[in-house]
Amino acid sequence: MKKKTVPPVKNYFKYFLALILFLLVLLTISGWLFVRNYKPILSEKLKEQVYIASDSLYKVNFSEVHLNPLLGKFTIDSFQLTPDTNTYKLLKKEHRAPPNLFVVFIKEFQLRHIHLWSLLRSKKVNIGIVKAENPRITVIRKAERRKKGNQKTIRHTLFNLTSGPLKSIKIDHIGLHNIYFTSKNEQKNRKSDPENIQLKNMELIFKDIRIDSSTLADTSRFLFAKKAWFHLAESKFFLKDSLYEITTNGIGYSIVDEKALIRGLKITPQYSERDFDRQLTYRKALFTVSADSLILDGLGPEELDKRNWHLKGIGIRQFDLDVYLNRSNPLKPGVKPLLQQALKNISEDLLVERLYLKGGNIKYRELKPISW
Fold first, then answer.
1. Are 261 and 293 in contact (CB under 8 A)?
2. 54 — alpha (psi -120 to 50), left (phi > 0) or beta?
């Protein structure tokens, strides 16, 4: 009886599987050794780099880091970015303090598709995706904006991340989802500014981020990103006088393209017409506004920050405007009830090159004293 011989192809296949298994075991051991030896170093380098880049103003803390070199995944638990108040006071004395401070907390901060070989060999950061779920961001306004604005300061702070051992930073996608945003105003003598702002369910996306010497002066990028946009789900705001409530079905803003879209805008009085009149000492019109969509074109981040609104165009579609005025209330001394007088009272500079209205209804109503 002849013995069965194993075809050479099958032997080669076995050797191939054995080689693959050997490589997987070798990579696993190498990855474990890498995590064991380099994870503490990466943690300390991250804290040190942020501290240096922010001119000793900010500190980074986290509870744990998880590194998987095989998958190129880096996860940070309980990430916190906090300002050093003593450093801020020192910078303020030297007239180098920024107008805003930031406090950030992220329960889980993920970096995916990290090219570790490029980082170790060439000192270049190359990351596919940065993802943060449910971050809590607080902005504290401490002082007036400097004449040059704070945009340049932020850009240089980010650029300073490459001033140490790193040569460049490249990130394909940054996504911050379900943000809880709070803004606190600690300025003095600025009664026109809202004291506190709270926004929920906010999303912020950056794409194609390049931080190196070639992009520092690239004006086509926003904070080194080629594309950046902001989205806010259904929202509710109240004006400072608490007479009106503003609601929307969603706000989208393309920062680089300088275009904003507001859907389902409604400005609704908090009181009925009779109760509204009781809140007033002098004559004042009551407005009710609704619009299917409001488009703002040419609204750049610098103009928005300086409250100097120079818009290429405003488009309003499918809107209703209802104006009610009770003429029985006395006029405020020295104030004329004219449209130009109301526009004159706007504290911010506003220039609109083109106003586009489509599908609108405007209604004006007056209550005269004789009708009582």
1. yes
2. alpha
- Same-domain pairing of 204 and 160: yes
How far apart are the C-alpha atoms of 274 and 326, rounded to whole Å? 9
What is the distance between the alpha carbons of residues 14 and 342, in angstroms, rounded to a whole number? 85
Closest CA to 137 of 79, 212, 96: 79
Q: What is the mean pLDDT of residues 92-96?
A: 83
When the pLDDT of each residue in the chain is averaged and rounded to a whole number, the result is 77
109 within 8 A of 75, measured Cβ to Cβ: yes
pLDDT surpasses 80 at 303: no
Query: Average pLDDT for residues 55-82, to the nearest whole number?
Result: 82
Residue 354 gets the label, from left (phi > 0), alpha (psi -120 to 50) or beta, of beta
What is the spatial distance between Cα 205 and Cα 199, in angstroms, rounded to a whole number?
16
Same domain, 259 and 292: yes
Tokens for 79? Answer: 């990430």
Number of domains in the chain: 2
Domain hosting 130: range is 35-233
In a domain, 180, yes or no: yes
C-alpha distances in Å from residue 65, one per residue of 47, 75, 216: 12, 6, 30
**Helices marked H in the chain — which ranges?**
8-53, 85-93, 116-122, 151-159, 273-278, 301-306, 339-344
17, part of any domain: no
Q: Which of 189, 212, 233 is the last residue of a domain?
A: 233
Mean pLDDT within 218-247:
82
Is the model's pLDDT at 170 over the cut of 80?
yes
Separation of alpha carbons 346 and 368, rounded Å: 28
Greatest CA separation for the chain: 124
Residue 7: inside a domain, yes or no? Answer: no
158 burial type by CB count under 10 A (0-12 exposed, 13-18 middle, 19+ buried): middle
Task: Identify the burial level of 38 via C-beta atoms within 10 angstroms of its C-beta, where 0-12 means exposed, 13-18 middle and 19 or more buried.
Answer: middle
CB 277 within 8 A of CB 307: no
